[in-house]
Amino acid sequence: MEEKVFDLLEKLYIEVQEMKSNMATKDEIRKLESSIVRMESEIKDDIKCLYDCYKQCIEGISTVNKKLDKLTEKVEKPRD
Length: 80
Fold this sequence. Notes:
By secondary structure, the protein is an all-alpha fold. The protein has a domain at 43-73. 90% of the residues lie in helices and 0% in strands. The protein starts with a helix and ends with a helix. The model has no long low-confidence stretch (mean pLDDT 92).
């Protein structure tokens, strides 16, 4: 009976050691956190840049549409 208990304890110890070896250290977690913060900052900058470009495109399209409307009026205007 004692040998079975010892074998179970030994198996349990081995499993705990395997789990422990797979766990991240505090230093690894800190490195991951700093990487995440850096990536979030970069993504925010990229999103801001994309939004600015989007606004410029919309303004450009608006300008082209206004010019097109003026030209359409000139073409469709009846001649006397």
